[in-house]
Design goal:
The complex is a heterodimer of chains A (about 750) and B (about 150). In chain A, strands 3-5-1-12-9-10-11 form a seven-stranded mixed beta sheet, with helices on both faces. A five-stranded mixed beta sheet of chain A has the order 7-15-14-13-8. Chain A has a five-stranded mixed beta sheet with strand order 18-19-27-28-29, with helices on both faces. Chain A contains 19 helices and 29 strands. With about 750 residues, chain A is of the alpha+beta class. The termini of chain A are far apart. The longest helix of chain A is centred in the C-terminal third of the chain and has 28 residues. Chain B is α+β, with helices and mostly antiparallel strands and about 150 residues long. Chain B folds into two domains: about 70 residues, Ubiquitin-like (UB roll) (Roll); about 80 residues, DNA polymerase, domain 1 (Orthogonal Bundle), CATH 1.10.150. Chain B is about 35% helix and about 15% strand. Chain B contains five helices and five strands; from the N terminus they run ββαβββαααα. In chain B, a hairpin with a 2-residue loop joins β1 and β2. The longest helix of chain B is centred in the last third of the chain and has 16 residues. Classes of the chains: A alpha+beta (about 750), B alpha+beta (about 150). The complex binds FE2/S2 (inorganic) cluster (FES) (2 copies). The site of one FE2/S2 (inorganic) cluster has 11 residues of chain B, from loops.
Chain lengths: ~750, ~150
């Protein structure tokens, strides 16, 4: 049967409103006369507050409140948006006497105007005892200086954390006899790769509005991906029951994982709870860059064991991850660096080992960023495989074809899951074709100091956190025969409101316009873990499907009653409920009307879904660059990608996800740097220094899909949102190595580094 | 200080502080399409038209607009509606936060150069950052619009 709505490239339901600039975002839809909330930030990477005097600040006209560590609840919590109990240790207070990075919170100021607040911030007098910071992640483990020496630090579930060792998580997993297989290989080699604490750089910075509702509850309107987790985080932080908190999200100006951490919310929430006044906090871009929650900086050491013919038999990976000053997402990101890179080579692997340490340091706390830890791990493993190809003088595509994961294989490095839907092999073949691999792989000297070269990489991700993530949907037939769909997942521009409506329209056989979609509000939406871990289409989509099935059954029951027959005798036929023998029917409009008169069967159904597996989407990316040997600059000419996301529910939105992810990946590879001075201050604290790609930096993109059918997903769908950021770094690093003979193992590959590399070579 | 200017065709007289930015001025007057994405004049989200020319309202004092015509997307709905549907057809609006600035600058581009090449489009809009879309879909949308005009 042909799908009508699934796989249709329809417009996003909110597209025209957004393009015409209608009010949709937090600052547009909340009262502008709320108190302005700002936070005084620590100038030191590690210090104790000896004295803090706020008297002068409080006297500034228009200042309503100034809070310090002395005013906040003394119960630790985490800002990570994760299912409870959170894997991230509870190591935060709203404000702490110990400040742990440059940018950590010192005081909260609330006032009538921004000017007053800025003046008050300058008038707070703080005396610090400056302590030695731990700035190098390599020396953090068992360093004599502890980032979290406090006794009330709690690790809620066992992740190997130990605050007395600066350790946030530690684990080793393996399969097979790594030592024996390595010893039996023709060739083994070890390489170390390093990725930086890249910023999500969503255009809308962190921002939150809070007020008390008529019941005296805290009403939070925030740009967030995780309304339900946020409700718990705020309740924990303020030490109040969750029934006192309502969280709602308007349109979100981009998230990419940043808004899976409660970066801004607790500050205005605390102000409103204490003062009873509406409050609003909007992060500046600088604040976003220095007091946000970027990607975990990781250093990965990969050892590969292979045969001369290119058979990859063993991968041994160790990841050192830097969570910074707080633990958010530290114990969970790191796992993906191995579990979503090594399985790509399941085809040939006889053994693997993956171990990691995650450490605290005195730099900006990390968080969740698209790709989570997979992006880092894939840069390392894919680069190592490309280096192997060079050593063996093999074509890197041919090398992969020999070793890759194929449909039906069980992946020991991916929790023993089976690849039920995997078109990775077809992605490789198709990418080769559309890219013109045979012509572009040879290095071409353009004769003007410029060289053209190519690179390739593969990627995978997950489609949820298996056995954890929950999606729910409430579907309802309205009085006039139209529907509502209510979800707790958050559309952050990705289009999930529309995609989930498409799934519903397909199930109910109605028009897309006949569905009013709403999300997300903790008071009225059904529970959902939130929009992260690539889970929305796969998990919440399935919940929509389940809810529709039940709704149809309920409508059949009502219809049967109206027709005076048994429910077994009728069927749901989109615009009517009819007798299977065709002898009679009642229109959906009549059924809908009946639901409001003398009716005992609900025309509203909520269904919940959780998946025991997390089927990976796959991708192959190929890049052609032009490298200028004079300046070291790298221009991306052409990027071709082929993605297997199962069934693309909306091909246009899937394509844009892929293109947007690739461009972010190009930024990570070539320009997005994060460096610290000797005091631990971040240099790249604005868009002038932190260079995200412009439309001149990305060359030509082309994305295609190789569909597979995932039996556990809605209409065969898997995920798309994250996998797409993973291929540019390793592919570009390979192209640069082809052009210059130098492998860059630390990102980003800036023109300076390219030049210096060529000089040293 | 008191200033007089035209905002989306309406005469406005207002008392402002000397350091009020045009961005905050227009938002305070209901032009909520105008967004702020940075503090360093790097993102283009705050683009408005001053006497028909695109400027960054985050880098312009409201006082400088005195006596001039300021236009935001609120005042150019029809001109925008003419082509933004083509961008919607690509799914390239994504989160939408960068859209108003991008649409304003595209309006300026199309007024100046009704038939731009792809490279001209990229160059003109280079200052309009977008973190979601990867830019290619925005370009496809504009291209589709230009093609439709030729066919029509
Ligand atoms: S707000 Fe970024 S350029 Fe004006
Ligand atoms: S659409 Fe989100 S920044 Fe452009």
């Amino acid at each position: 049967m042909e799908n009508k709505h699934v796989s249709a490239a329809v417009r996003k339901k909110d597209a025209m409103q957004l393009l015409l600039g209608k009010p949709a975002f937090m600052e547009d839809v909340t009262p502008a006369d709320a108190l302005v909330v700002k936070v005084l930030r620590s100038p030191h990477a590690h210090a104790l507050i000896e004295e803090i005097n706020t008297d002068l600040a409080k006297k500034v006209e228009g200042i309503v409140a100034v809070y310090t560590y002395k005013d906040v609840p003394q119960r630790r919590f985490t800002l990570a948006g994760q299912t409870s109990p959170e894997p991230s240790p509870w190591d935060r207070l709203i404000l702490d006497r110990r400040v742990r990075y440059v940018g950590d919170g010192v005081a909260i100021v609330a006032g009538e105007t921004e000017k007053a607040v800025n003046t008050a911030l300058r008038r707070i007098k703080v005396k610090y005892t400056v302590l030695e910071p731990v700035l190098d992640m390599h020396t953090a483990l068992d360093h004599p200086v502890l980032v979290h020496p406090e006794e009330d630090w709690v690790s809620v579930i066992p992740v190997g954390a130990d605050n007395k060792r600066n350790l946030v998580a530690q684990e080793t997993t393996s399969d097979g006899d790594v030592e024996a297989v390595m010893a039996d290989c023709d060739l083994t080699f070890t390489r170390t790769y390093h990725t930086k604490a890249c910023q999500q750089a969503m255009m809308e910075t962190f921002r939150t509005y809070t007020e008390l509702d008529p019941y005296g509850r805290l009403h939070v309107v925030s740009s967030t991906q995780i309304v339900f987790h946020l409700r718990r985080i705020i309740a924990n932080a303020l030490d109040i029951p969750q029934s006192k908190v309502r969280v709602e999200k308007p349109r979100i100006g981009g998230g990419f994982g940043a808004k899976q951490t409660s970066v801004a919310e607790v500050y205005p929430a605390f102000v409103t709870w204490k003062t009873g006044r509406a409050a609003r906090m909007v992060f500046s871009r600088a604040e976003c860059q220095t007091s946000g929650c970027p990607r975990h900086e990781m250093e990965m050491t990969v050892k590969i064991g292979a045969m001369k013919d290119g058979h990859i038999r063993c991968i041994d990976l160790h990841t050192l991850s830097n969570t910074g000053a707080y633990s958010e997402h530290g114990p969970t990101t790191v796992g993906l660096s191995g579990h979503k890179s090594i399985p790509l080579y399941t085809g040939g692997l006889e053994a693997f080992r993956f171990s990691y340490d995650v450490v605290y340091t005195n730099v900006q706390a990390a968080g969740a960023y698209r790709g989570y830890g997979a992006t880092q791990g894939i840069f390392a493993v894919e680069s190592a495989v490309n280096e192997l190809a060079e050593m063996l003088e093999m074509d890197p595509v041919a090398l992969r074809e020999k070793n890759i994961l194929r449909e039906g294989m069980v992946m020991p490095a991916y929790y023993g899951e089976k690849a039920n839907a995997c078109a990775l092999d077809r992605c490789l073949t198709r990418a080769k074709e559309i890219f013109g691999w045979e012509e572009k792989w040879p290095v071409r000297d353009m004769g003007n100091g410029k060289v053209r070269s190519a690179g390739v990489a593969m990627a995978m991700q997950g489609s949820c956190i298996s056995n954890v993530d929950i999606g729910s949907a409430t579907v309802r037939l309205q009085e006039d025969g139209t529907y509502t769909l209510s979800i707790g997942a958050a559309d952050m521009g990705t289009g999930c409101d529309t995609i989930l409506s498409q799934i519903m329209a397909e199930c109910m056989g109605c028009k897309l316009e006949d569905i009013a979609v709403f999300g997300a509000d903790t008071d009225s939406s059904p529970y959902d873990s939130g929009s992260y871990a690539s889970s929305t289409t796969y998990v919440t989509g399935k919940a929509v499907e389940k809810a529709c099935t039940q709704l149809k059954a309920n409508l059949c029951a009502i219809g049967a009653q109206m027709l005076g027959c048994t429910v077994e005798e009728v069927e749901f036929a989109s615009t009517s409920v009819r007798k299977k023998d065709g002898s009679a029917e009642v229109s959906l409009a009549d059924v809908a009307n009946k639901t409001t008169i003398g009716n005992n069967t609900s025309a509203q159904v909520t269904a919940t879904h959780c998946s025991p597996v997390s089927p990976p989407p796959y991708m192959v990316g190929m890049v052609e660059i032009e490298l200028d040997k004079e300046t070291g600059s790298v221009e991306v000419l052409d990027y071709k990608a082929v993605v297997d996301c199962g069934t693309p529910i909306n091909p246009h939105l899937a394509r844009i996800q892929a293109e947007g992810g690739i461009v972010q990946g190009i930024g990570m590879a070539l320009s997005e740097n994060v460096t610290y001075d000797e005091k631990g201050r971040i240099t790249e604290n604005n868009f002038f220094q932190y260079k995200i790609p412009t439309r001149l930096d990305m060359g030509k993109l082309q994305v295609e899909f190789e569909a597979s059918y995932e039996p556990t997903g809605p209409f065969g769908a898997k995920s798309i949102g994250e996998v797409v950021i993973n291929t540019p770094s390793p592919a570009i690093a390979q192209a640069v190595a082809r052009a210059t003979g130098v492998w860059h193992r630390t990102l980003p590959i800036t023109p300076e580094k390219v030049l210096m590399g060529m000089e040293e070579a | 200080m008191e200033i007089k200017l035209t905002l989306n065709g309406k005469a406005v007289t207002a008392h402002i502080e000397a350091d009020t930015l045009l961005l905050d001025f227009v938002r305070a007057r209901g032009c909520l399409s105008v967004k702020r994405g940075c503090e360093t004049e790097n993102c283009g989200l705050c683009t408005v038209l001053l006497d028909g020319k695109p400027i960054l309202s985050c880098a312009t004092l409201a006082a400088r607009a005195a006596g001039h015509h300021v236009q935001t997307l609120e005042g150019l709905q029809e001109e925008a509606a003419d082509f933004v549907g083509f961008i919607a057809d690509q799914g390239a609006e994504q989160c939408g936060f960068c859209n108003p600035g991008f649409v304003m600058n595209t309006i300026a581009l199309l007024r100046e150069n009704p038939d731009p090449t792809d490279d001209e489009i990229r160059a003109y809009l280079a200052g309009n950052l977008c973190r979601c879309s990867g830019y290619e879909g925005q370009l496809r949308g504009i291209r589709a619009y230009l093609d439709s005009k030729k066919e029509g």
